[in-house]
Design brief:
Blueprint (H helix, E strand, L loop, with lengths): L29 H11 L5 E4 L7 H7 L3 E4 L4 H11 L4 H13 L7 H8 L1 E3 L6 E10 L7 E4 L12 E4 L2 H8 L6 H8 L6 H8 L4 H17 L4 H16 L15 E2 L2 E2 L6 E5 L1 H18 L7 E2 L12 E5 L9 H10 L1 H4 L11 H18 L7 E6 L3 H13 L3 E8 L15 E7 L14 H19 L5 H14 L3 H4 L9 H14 L6 E4 L6 E4 L8 H15 L5 H10 L9 H11 E3 L5 E3 L5 H21 L3 E4 L1 H4 L5 H6 L10 H5 L10 H4 L4 E6 L2 E8 L5 H7 L9 E7 L4 H10 L1 H9 L2 E5 H9 L30
Parallel strand pairs: 1-2, 1-11, 2-10, 11-12, 21-22, 22-23
Antiparallel strand pairs: 3-4, 4-5, 4-9, 5-6, 7-8, 12-14, 13-14, 15-16, 17-18, 19-20, 20-21
Helix pairs in contact: 1-2, 3-10, 4-9, 4-10, 4-11, 7-8, 7-9, 9-10, 10-11, 10-12, 14-15, 15-17, 15-19, 16-17, 16-19, 20-22, 23-31
């Protein structure tokens, strides 16, 4: 079966997951899964996710009507998926939590023991309080501060207070035995060969938190029988395993654990936050239970553990690249604590030394090799990459090629994700499409020389610039380079280029930097300063920029559809711009907001004032007013070819003629602008309105009812040489002010052309009042100039002499 490849981006909607599910990864975008499986998998076809975690691509495919099959490379991920899928009713889980709190292995109940363990007194009123967190300086013997809520003096416990610890708090912290019973109970859970790992992880906790962890774990195991409720309680326990350690910085939720040579690596933060393990655990259980209860009944994916579990060969391999690694070595530690050392296996000894992009390359390559082996001969693979940057996109492309696939396309959007999971994470996302047709085995590949690789990279960058009609950043340049390398059969040889400890990813990045360093060889140049430098074509861009094409496409969709839902509008908008032309999310949304009106039912329609006939009539009327103003001020006038035949309306039609050209005198119709200003004849003939022959001054007026100003500023304006006697004006409809400003900020090249050629912006309404005023003089023009003119700002008076 031959299907058309997906070539347009799909609007992504991110779903926030509760703790601790968000540590496995975010929910796979349902809209992307629906689009991909509809295109590549038949009805009730098999979709394999080789990197499954809770609510991953396998579950999204199952909800889309396919057989979702999940394979988790880590035991903890497979167990977590089952715990969520088989979760009991909320009442049963909360009753199990209550039994844990009331358990008493020795003396008081567990809840009372935890309250005493984290007990303190308010520094103001000396009332007893339960501390929510202690703040520690690195390598200190006691905490420095405590955070708590006082029901007596702090708004009945609603305000969180942070105060220095007192002598009793220091004594309580030092009273805990660092190598007491809890320490050895923790270490003994690890296999004999990993005893050193257990000891190095145990010292990452304060003695108080280690005691609380082991006491809570024993209470769960002794009071709750084996079953779904126990699994869910243990899944919530994962959160405090991570946040209860010294790797939990003051402003974070615990960093991933890195393991080197069989031992845990300590963090470098100057301060850490010692949480109240039991209080945090209770909150996590309740949040998780509440979230599960609010979810609709899921269509569950099958877990793939052995070949016989797979219902036939997969028709599609669909997964999310493992960019977010919020657990790291904690996945193995939690597996040991919750599942047992036998089920956990052995920790990855190289985990601590691998960079993020190398980890993505290795993990995804192994997952796609597994997916390739378990899928049919013509089954494609699609990889969703959140937080995409140049290195991670290249890592995914090389991983898929090394697994036996051929890169067919990359869809990239700079701001696809509205809520990045980390403050330093990119909001970009990419979708990589791989096929299996025409693939040559890696062992049959011939090496490629550096010259051919770098030439292909430069060609791909040039293609990306030409497709978008604007300078591109490193990520889009990399996408163009990778697609050209794949098209020329050079991406596969790159996967064999690792040597001397340097991976194929580093080899590609070296070639990429080298190719762009010699970019002038292919007519490319770098503009701007690092790290935000862009690549453009030295000879200039002939194509209309993507910004203007997107704006016109959105207007066309709104004018053609009377009422359209937001999702349908976004899908149709993205479908107009394929592959490298994928527009930014913010640009699309700004264009929709600029031209669309949303009804009470959420459907969009074109604003009445932006109908084509009405806008052209307003543009014609403004041009007529400018003709009259020019004659009143002593200028002669020229009207461009695009406006000359426009029909007049109102008083002008009744008294002056039927078309705009009738407002000109016979001498003006026969005059040649070339006698008064320089420029090609075809350019001068397309200028909307030109005033000339007053004190040798020339006023060029371009009238735009859209924000597509590239034609006026670049295509026409750059062809007219600078002259002290020539003044350039760009009149834009009042409603386009915001969109014009956004485009000038977005495009440095366009803004530079506006500045260099001294274009003066003016809005239609202030200009119309100036042109229609019988007593206005040329000096009054200054007050109406600008996207925020002085006439709209009270208290400002400007004087200007032309």
């Amino acid at each position: 079966m031959t299907v058309e490849r997906i070539r347009s981006f799909v609007p992504l909607e991110t779903t926030l997951l509760p703790r601790p599910l968000d540590r496995f990864g975010r929910a796979f975008p349902a809209s992307l899964a629906e689009c991909v499986v509809a295109a590549y998998a038949p009805e009730r076809g098999v979709v394999l996710d080789p990197l499954a975690h809770p609510l991953s691509a396998a579950d999204a495919s199952a909800r889309a009507g396919r057989h979702g099959v999940a394979r988790s490379p880590q035991p903890l991920g497979a167990w977590a998926r089952r715990a969520v899928d088989q979760a009991p009713p909320a009442e049963e889980t909360l009753a199990a939590l209550a039994r844990v709190a009331e358990s008493a292995l020795a003396g008081p109940t567990h809840a009372i023991s935890m309250r005493e363990l984290y007990g303190a007194r308010c520094g103001t009123c000396r009332a007893p309080v339960t501390v929510e967190a202690f703040l520690w300086e690195r390598d200190a013997f006691a905490p420095a501060k405590k955070a708590f809520r006082c029901g007596v003096c702090a708004r009945e416990g609603r305000a969180l207070l942070i105060e220095p610890v007192d002598a009793d708090d220091e004594a309580s912290a030092q009273a805990q035995d660092a190598r007491g019973l809890a320490y050895w109970q923790f270490v003994e859970r690890f296999a004999e060969v990993e005893r050193g790992l257990g000891e190095s992880v145990a010292v990452l906790y304060t003695p108080r938190n280690l005691g609380a962890l082991m006491a809570t774990l024993r209470a769960i195991e002794t009071t709750v029988g084996v079953g779904p409720a126990r699994d869910l309680l243990l899944l919530a326990f994962l959160e405090v395993v991570v946040t209860g350690s010294r790797l939990n910085a003051v402003a974070g939720r615990g960093t991933p654990l890195r393991i080197e040579r069989g031992r845990a690596r300590r963090g470098h933060a100057a301060q850490s936050r010692e949480i109240n393990v039991w209080l945090e655990y209770e909150r996590c259980v309740r949040d998780l239970v509440q979230w599960i209860a609010a979810q609709p009944a899921p269509k569950r994916a099958r877990e793939f553990a052995a070949p016989e579990d797979l219902p036939g060969k997969a028709d599609l391999v669909l997964c999310e690249a493992p960019v977010d690694d919020a657990l790291g070595g904690w996945a193995h530690v939690a597996s040991v604590l919750c599942l047992g050392a036998a089920a956990a296996g052995t920790a990855d000894a190289t985990d601590g030394r691998a960079t993020e992009r190398e980890r993505v390359l290795r993990s995804l390559r192994q997952a796609l090799i597994d997916g390739h082996r378990r899928s049919s001969e013509d089954a494609p693979a699609v990889v969703y990459l959140p937080h995409a940057d140049l290195a991670s996109i290249a890592a995914c492309a090389l991983a898929g090629t090394a697994a036996g696939y051929r890169l067919r396309g990359i869809l990239y959007q700079r701001d696809a994700l509205a809520t990045p999971s980390r403050a330093d994470a990119s909001g970009a996302a990419a979708v990589l499409d791989f096929g299996r047709e025409g693939v040559t085995l890696l062992r049959d590949q011939t090496p490629a020389n550096a010259a051919s690789i770098e030439d292909a990279i430069r060609h791909g960058v040039r293609e990306a610039i030409a497709a978008r009609g604007e300078p591109v950043g490193a990520e889009l340049a990399g996408v163009g380079a990778l697609l050209t390398l794949a098209g020329r059969g050079l991406l596969a040889p790159l996967t064999l280029a690792r040597a001397g400890g340097v991976s194929e990813l580093e080899v590609f990045l070296d070639h990429f930097r080298s190719a762009l360093g010699d970019a002038k060889r292919s007519g490319l140049e770098r503009v701007g300063e690092a790290p935000h430098a862009l690549m453009t074509i030295s000879s200039g861009l002939d194509a209309t920029p993507l910004d203007d094409r997107v704006e016109w496409g959105i207007w066309g969709l709104l004018s053609a559809a009377r009422e359209i839902e937001t999702k349908a509008l976004l899908r149709r908008a993205y479908a107009l711009f394929r592959d490298l032309e994928t527009p930014d999310r913010e640009l699309v949304e700004r264009c929709i907001a600029a031209y669309g009106a949303q009804g009470a039912d959420g459907r969009w329609r074109l604003r009445d004032e932006d109908a084509l006939v009405k806008r052209q009539a307003e543009q014609t009327a403004l041009a007529a007013d400018l003709v009259d103003a020019a004659h009143r001020l002593g200028f002669k006038v020229s009207i461009g070819r695009d406006l000359r035949r426009r029909a007049l309306a109102g008083a002008h039609a009744a008294m002056r003629g039927s078309i705009l050209g009738d407002l000109l005198s016979d001498a003006e119709r026969e005059a040649s602008l070339a006698r008064h200003m320089r420029g090609p004849a075809d350019v001068l003939d397309h200028l909307d309105v030109v005033w000339y022959d007053r004190a040798h001054m020339v006023f060029v007026w371009q009238l735009e009812w859209t924000a597509r100003i590239h034609r006026s500023v670049v295509q026409l304006g750059e062809a007219i040489p600078d002259d002290d006697r020539v003044f350039r004006f760009l009149a834009v409809a009042d409603e386009r002010r915001g969109l014009v400003g956004y485009k000038l900020v977005r495009s440095a090249a366009l803004a530079e052309a506006v500045r260099r050629r001294a274009w003066r912006f003016v809005k239609w309404e202030p200009l119309r009042r100036f042109a229609a005023g019988p007593e206005t003089t040329l000096a009054d023009l200054e007050g109406v100039l600008g996207l925020e003119p002085a006439v709209e700002q009270a208290g400002q008076q400007l004087a200007f002499k032309w």
